[in-house]
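Morning!

As promised:
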Amino acid sequence: MGKPDDIQQSEKQTEAIRFIQHTSDHSLLLQCLIKIQEAYLHIPADTVELLQQQLGLSYADINVVVEFYSFLSFEKSGDYQILISNNITDQFLGNQTLFKKLNSRLADVNVSIEYTSCTGLCDQGPAILVNGWAINRVDDERIEHIAELIEQRLPVDQWPSHFFEKEDNILRRDIQLSVECQPGAAIKTAIQQGREQSLETLEAAGLKGRGGAGFSTASKWRFCAQTEAGQRYVVCNADEGEPGTFKDRVLLNQYAHDVFEGMTVCAAVIGATRGLVYLRGEYRYLLPQLQQVLQQRRDDGLLGAHILGEDLAFDIDIHLGAGAYICGEESALIESLEGKRGIPRIRPPFPVVSGYLGQPTVVNNVESFWSVSRIMLLGADWFAGVGTDASKGTRLLSISGDCRDPGIYEFPFGVTVTEILAACGGEQTQAIQMAGAAGTTVLARDFERRMCHEDLATGGSFMVIGRQRNLLDMLANFSNFFTHESCGFCTPCRVGTQLIDDIICCFKQGQGSTSELQQLNDIAKLMQQNSFCGLGSSAPTAFLNALQQSPELFSAHGPLDDNPQFDLTAAVAEYEQLVATLSGDLR
Amino acid sequence: MKGKIKIATTSLAGCFGCHMSILDIDERLIDLVDIVEFNRSPLTDIKHASQCDIGIIEGAVANSENVEVLREFRRECKTLVAIGACALNGGVPAMRNHYSLTECIKESYLDGIGLDNPMVPNDPDLPKLLDKVHPVQEVVKIDYFLPGCPPPADMIWKMLTDLLAGREPVFTPQQIYYD
């Protein structure tokens, strides 16, 4: 006792316990567990007992949730837990060297160092999380500084603030980023227009969900509004887990007002009184400032019982995630909001009919809500004036990888890959990966393809792969990612992702064979057709792309028929030496 | 002879028991030669396999000549089938893997009881022994494996007829039941 971090930690523990003692709603299980994990750096057995009593749950109910989420664990792995972001762009920036350096520098301290999935800092990597706090651009100097702080046993939230500063890197503004919205203005318009008129505006704007699936936002809201129910919910999906996507982080950092404004407009249109933001655990550091914005909006009468003095009641809570990519899938996200494991639901019923707590729920991406606030203010024509026939407006791209200026770029739909690369300074580019690990690989010969729902759909991730890279490294990174992130519920995905990973590893080590290529193809197709949710059906896309577009990638990495591990020269060396020495002597 | 399916067979470090089992298909061999042509095989005395449809490998890989033959089969045969315990697992030849090659050679040629004129053979024509005996799939890619010591004639017949008909070989549980 007496060490600064111990006191700090014990205060947090008291606070976490107090929180649980005042909770009886079992849908808050995950939130309770996250608080415990933060305070104790693991989930101690006695807190599980307390949770059982308070929430009326069995041990098994709690156990499965802890086992499911990456950031929760029953065992304490160290006084400091360092997670190194392992997106392919972090790999490009040398996260494997970083892993080694951290390990050797911190060998004598009680620290656990592991890899984690993309932490959304691809434009300023390599990035790490220390006890859940994200740190960007970890270079030698920072490693040294971090090691010193850890040796002094200073709690992470007392580390110098410059460690946690993030860059927004907004590098191209089009129609949406170039306007500022006055808080409350969009809500006012929505109230004036009324429900039907507001929906028509959105419909005319042609706004499609920015999460990647591209479903019409107006239709989604309409379906939800039409479902008879006592209660409706607005959910903002801020579980930005797709590798290479970070635009939601920037929006939440700089445009939180507009996002909450969009949610409030949605509430007014569908008749909801409660909204939830599902913020990925990796963005936990944004939580205090987001709560501040919410409080300010309550103070300004933009949230609460009588918004803008009208008969409109709405408030927003923020729930944290705990490191599970699958929770970006809307039905898994709702399960997670209810405090359970993030396992996708059978659809239909869709969330607009039966979502959070079985009530009609609109789940939209952060960017969708952000765009709503602008469309309400500036009108449908302003938005639909750019883009293509089926993809209206502009969208934000998170650009990372081998380019001069990684960051956030707003582009109208219909822009070609070549144009995007020119803007971000991507030269000597071998390929780009559109829409993240689950997205499409576009090789240089197809760079005239366009970003839009008709051609290259995207959730906002755009990773540039230079000529110096081996595409097989990227595939291995993705296969590893999916193996880790498959929720394990359905066999095609749980087993398929592992089998694909094994095959890709074989090729990476130069041990692949023709029959394995056939297997890869078969498994990928089986996963596409038989997986339970979008994770499993989209996971094999990059591998199929590679098989179809660049089969030479595989033949170059496996002599296909002979096993290269078998070395004839080495295998006969002992015999040759024997014959040379023994028979020579005897003659 | 054009149009016939070409089959090559060989025995590496094996006892020819699997080949005996091939011969055990008895009179069906006559049906077989109507549709297949034997290339390199102990049955034909052809020295090198070339452009075959099916290659059948018996025995494990114990020396440099085995490696050369096996690689030739892989190169020349579209479908390669490993048959028998030695090919699949190393079998009896692999029992020497418990000892070092030096121990084995000393015991056999220098220190063994009752040896007359002990010496290590060193004729350059002799294949070089590998330090360890390997199952065939550790050296080349194998398409099908037929277990058994030896695999029964009916099993070999079923495998051949399925492959000749262009089908994936499938066995009933009875056909691969050994106890």
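DSSP finds six helices and seven strands in chain B.

Hope this helps with the figure draft.
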